[in-house]
Design brief:
250 residues; alpha/beta; Ribosomal Protein L25, Chain P; 2 domains; 12 strands
């Protein structure tokens, strides 16, 4: 069934109204008929199986038939702090990160980021596109929420924000110089089970500078290894998310 979202709770027995792009998709793309069913997810992470009741002026009406807690969300909130990559790599990263269960994506300007976003209008346009990609990926993968892509942050800002999370991980290609082994990395991953929130820092092309890793470690970040191979920025975050999802999902 198709998934849709509303940003509030649903009162039992109420008729649910979807408008805008959702209405257009339902009526003109899916060409749904009365009685056909969809899943509508609310802000309380409750999923509702709903039947199309009819169309109004610019809106679609649904009757809720059955409600239950969303089964597709991880018990742990995972925030991906992604160094902004070149070209359209961020589109792929957002799409796949949402499919893997990330709760939020934060684009980060690190010292080795090549892309420069200095125009507010250009940044707003990028964020609009990135959030549209997140919504599409959430609908496709049956997520209970639409993960948000936040505004672009500086590295210092991102580290400061991440301090509020239960654990911060920073995969680092030169982790051996810090005494990090595959064994200690596995132990760090195993120790995530039961945590409420986790932040993952991924560098852009060229990775992190050593000073950035030191700064993150001072804030409590745990450096880990993702193996003996050098991974591209669009691969590293998805690898880390896959391992964490597998080890923490109930």
């Amino acid at each position: 069934m198709q998934h849709f979202y509303i940003d509030r709770g649903i009162v039992p027995g109420e008729q649910i109204e979807l408008s805008g792009e959702d209405h257009n998709h339902i009526k003109n793309v899916l060409r749904m008929k009365r009685g056909e069913k969809v899943v509508i997810n609310d802000s309380e992470k409750i999923s509702h199986i709903c039947a199309l009741a009819g169309f109004g002026e610019g809106c679609s009406y649904f009757d809720a038939l059955e409600s239950f807690p969303c089964k597709t969300e991880l018990g742990t909130e995972i925030v991906l702090y992604q160094g902004v990559p070149k070209k359209d790599k961020m589109d792929l990263i957002i799409e796949k990160a949402v499919e893997l269960g990330v709760a939020r994506v934060v684009p980060v300007m690190t010292k080795r980021v090549i892309v420069k976003i200095e125009d507010d209008k250009k940044e707003a346009k990028k964020l609009e596109r990135w959030n549209a990609i997140a919504k599409s990926a959430a609908m496709q993968s049956g997520r209970g929420i639409i993960p948000k892509v936040d505004r672009v942050m500086s590295f210092k800002e991102a580290v400061r924000e991440a301090c509020s999370l239960d654990r911060i991980l920073i995969p680092y290609e030169e982790s051996e110089t810090l005494g990090v082994s595959m064994k200690s990395s596995r132990e760090a991953i195993a120790g995530l089970k039961g945590l409420k929130s986790i932040g993952i820092f991924i560098g852009p092309e060229g990775g992190f500078e050593a000073a950035e890793v030191e700064e993150a470690m001072k804030a409590g970040a745990v450096p880990i290894s993702l193996g003996k191979r050098i991974l591209r920025t669009e691969t590293a975050g998805l690898t880390a998310l896959s391992v964490i999802m597998f080890s923490t999902e109930e």
